[in-house]
Amino acid sequence: MTPLYHDLSGETVVVFGGGAVGSRKAKGFDEAAQVVVVSPEFDERLRSPADEREADEREAADAADGPAVELVRAAPDADAVTDWIDRFDPALAVAATDDAAVNAAVEAAALDRGILVNRTDVSGGRDPGSVVVPATIEDDPVTVALSTGGTSPALAKALRERIEAEIEGAGAMAALSGEIREELKDEGVAPETRREAVRRVVRSRGVWKGLQKGRSNGRQEADTVIEEVLNR
Ligand SMILES: C[C@@]1(CC(=O)O)C2=NC(=C\c3[nH]c(c(CCC(=O)O)c3CC(=O)O)Cc3[nH]c(c(CC(=O)O)c3CCC(=O)O)/C=C3\N/C(=C\2)[C@@H](CCC(=O)O)[C@]3(C)CC(=O)O)/[C@H]1CCC(=O)O
Ligand SMILES: NC(=O)c1ccc[n+]([C@@H]2O[C@H](COP(=O)([O-])OP(=O)(O)OC[C@H]3O[C@@H](n4cnc5c(N)ncnc54)[C@H](O)[C@@H]3O)[C@@H](O)[C@H]2O)c1
């Protein structure tokens, strides 16, 4: 398994099965892509207040928040799955029904068409072209994705909880160190010196602590670190 970050903007993700797992996957993708869930019934997490609003109110909300999850009420059997995939032409198909034959049909149809597929009902070995959804930890723009190669989802979750604490504040550090890097470039600081300065900033306890108090505290601490490097 090779980890990649995939830009799904403008793409469609089709989720078969609207239960606990299907709704978690749909919610996980709905900020990045157009998500369609095909299922005879839907978990309450998918039937958000947005779906109970009048159509015109919903359109206004969609325009403001980006696309919502589209719910399609149907229970295709294994033979009918192919037609649904062709209809939506997704970049990724998620098999999350509680019917192994339907999940297998989703996988076969997707692989046949070169569409990525995520099977939620099997662990361990995968067919080429299939993907695992990792546990993710985010402190924008920093993202950590964690997988046990499909072997132990419970361990993936336990490790995620540890790493959550570990990367707290990394988003602010990414923003600050990215900005410093650009500034030093613009000032014509020699590449070796610039790299040394940025490396020290991201490793400095003082800067991490400063950022906890606020951006300008972090910046002040970073300036001290940078001065030390430039004055050597
Ligand atoms: C990371 C996470 C992301 C997400 O799902 O969004 C995720 N599972 C999570 C949690 C979780 N899932 C399960 C438990 C109960 C404990 C247990 O049974 O182990 C817990 C823990 C809990 O809930 O506490 C049950 C389970 N999961 C799968 C099966 C099928 C099977 O094993 O056959 C069964 C048994 C079903 C049954 O027997 O009924 C399969 C998959 N689950 C994966 C991902 C993929 C492998 C990821 C990897 O490489 O590690 C994979 C292979 C497919 C996929 O979905 O891509 C999410 C973390 C959420 C978080 O971070 O909070
Ligand atoms: N990946 C994971 O983290 C994880 C966790 C738990 C369970 N699972 C596995 O994922 C599967 C789904 O689990 P769940 O807890 O969401 O089950 P669930 O019973 O809550 O949901 C299954 C959904 O599939 C729908 N469905 C049934 N037949 C369908 C069809 N022909 N077409 C479309 N939708 C159909 C049902 O109406 C239901 O909404 C199970 O097979 C389970 O083994 C995976």
From TrEMBL:
Q: What is its EC number?
A: 1.3.1.76
Alphabetically, the GO molecular function entries are:
ferrochelatase activity; precorrin-2 dehydrogenase activity
A biological process (GO) annotation for this entry? siroheme biosynthetic process
**Pathway, according to UniProt?**
Porphyrin-containing compound metabolism; siroheme biosynthesis; sirohydrochlorin from precorrin-2: step 1/1
Q: Name one Pfam family in it.
A: NAD_binding_7
UniProt lists compositionally biased (Basic and acidic residues) regions at 45-61
Q: Which UniProt keywords apply?
A: NAD, Oxidoreductase, Porphyrin biosynthesis
> Which reaction(s) are listed as its catalytic activity?
precorrin-2 + NAD(+) = sirohydrochlorin + NADH + 2 H(+)
Q: Where is this region: Disordered?
A: 45-65
**Domain spans labelled Siroheme synthase central:** 139-165
List the PANTHER family: SIROHEME BIOSYNTHESIS PROTEIN MET8
The record's NCBIfam families line, in alphabetical order, gives: cysG_Nterm (TIGR01470)
Name it. Answer: precorrin-2 dehydrogenase
Species of provenance: Halorubrum sodomense
